[in-house]
Amino acid sequence: MHVSSRFAPALAFIAVASFPIAAHAMTGGPPSPPHARGVAARTADSAVLVPGIDRDHMIAPASLLAALARVHRGIPSFSRQTKLACSACHYQFPQLTPFGRLFKLNGYTLTGLETIGQPADTGSAETLKLAPIPPASAMVVTSITNLAKALPATQNNTVSFPQQFSLFLAGQVTPKIGVFTQFTYAAPDGSFGIDNVDLRYATHTSLAKQDVLFGLTVHNNPTVQDVWNSIPAWGFPFMASEVAPSPIASTIIDGTMGQQVLGAGAYSLFANTLYAELSVYRSAPQGITQPLDSTATNVTNGVAPYWRLAVQHQGPSTYVMVGTYGLAAQLYPTGISGAVNHYTDAAIDAQIEQKVNEGMLIGRTSFIHESRSLNGSLAAAPATAEFLKGNLQSFRASASYLPSLRYSVSAAYFSTTGNMDQVLYAPASVVGSRVGNPNTSGLLGEFTYNPWQNTRLGAQYTLYQKFNGASTNYDGSGRNAAGNNTLYLYLWVAF
Length: 495
Prior knowledge:
Elements: H1 12-15, H2 23-26, H3 62-68, H4 77-82, E1 90-92, E2 95-96, H5 98-105, E3 116-117, E4 129-130, E5 136-147, E6 158-174, E7 177-186, E8 191-207, E9 210-219, H6 252-256, E10 261-270, E11 274-283, E12 297-300, E13 304-314, E14 318-334, E15 341-356, E16 359-374, H7 375-379, E17 389-402, E18 407-418, E19 440-452, E20 455-466, E21 486-494
Antiparallel strand pairs: 1-2, 3-4, 5-6, 5-21, 6-7, 7-8, 8-9, 9-10, 10-11, 11-13, 12-14, 13-14, 14-15, 15-16, 16-17, 17-18, 18-19, 19-20, 20-21
């Protein structure tokens, strides 16, 4: 894996850009005719509507709408493709409006450009429809990390330049097929390789006089295909330090399989209300010998199924989503045969967006319960776990207030709990657990300033109440949880 899963949210700004919100009126002139399925005819007052979403139910702060008349529209791949500002789809990146979610679900195919086609093609007989410009963009993140207590024998105040550098190729491939691909250089291992990928096919039909959006997705990171900010791939914080200590345990669905699998799935959105998805994953790790052999780790036995259900409701100033998702996986700890570890992750999540004057208040929460049976770990020589059965719970809740496109302030609480296991969670300097327990909890606050829509300055502070099972001497080497408190400053630019 070339990039830690915590950086998956970094690509959302480019991955899900612009659905027009009264674009004709707001930008001082009509955009080029949209060609993607999923854009209906203009109404008399020139608003552009999206199937399944009433004009009265469009959620957009006044500051967002006004910004469409002011900002330059030629930023990253999808914004270039749609000829609209990123604010048409984001309250602030990567926090999506309902239009941003529909843009992604419709396969990244909305375009405001005159496409290149075969002259003789008409209607359903079209054989070519290419964008006139390359669907390319880039992103760079640079940062400084300060720990309350420096790691043993290391220098504090770590500067990362770049922390991450990504190139993107993304956009419409055909009228019903679109793709998002990311290639990333990551400073910690000095590598450049394929990062997140999402290839989609989307179309529309009707059932009981209701619009039904149906799609297929091929991707390489469980939950990267999702459109909400309450799931692991796109969850808050959207950017974090790569050099600060990380807790000893996390659920399988929370990044463990990112960029190590290939997934294929089908999804639907009924009446812009009920979302359902089923995907399956098979190991496809990067940078190791293939076909996979005895040197491989965490290889899937068969396929790992993933499910997702969500119900959403949109009002004049309020949006609410409540959902559930999960993953079941059988993984060989090492090699491609023998005993496997069984993991079942089941989660519930919710997201609410409330208009407040000209700004937006966004709340997100998720709870993941993981049950596991570690047959493979117990069969290893030596065993890498003490108990056959175990569990892990992860809870996250966050709220962000965005008074305008330029500023945001966020606060979050996080907690991981699980059963004791002295072998699985063994003592080790900084990264281990003296008590054999994964329990970690804390608070996080962040302030961001966006001088431009594609440029962010962020200040983030993480305060740990407990780390790897204890508040004091948690690792057995005398380090306290508070020693890992982290001040993280970053600059994030996409272009």
